Amino acid sequence: MIKKILFILLLSVSFIGFSQQKVEKSIENLSAAPNPFTNSTKITFKSKKASTIYFSVKNVLGKTVFKKTYKTKKGNNSIDFHKDDLATGMYIYSIQDQKKVISKRFVIK
Question: Is the model's pTM score more than 0.85?
Answer without folding.
Answer: no
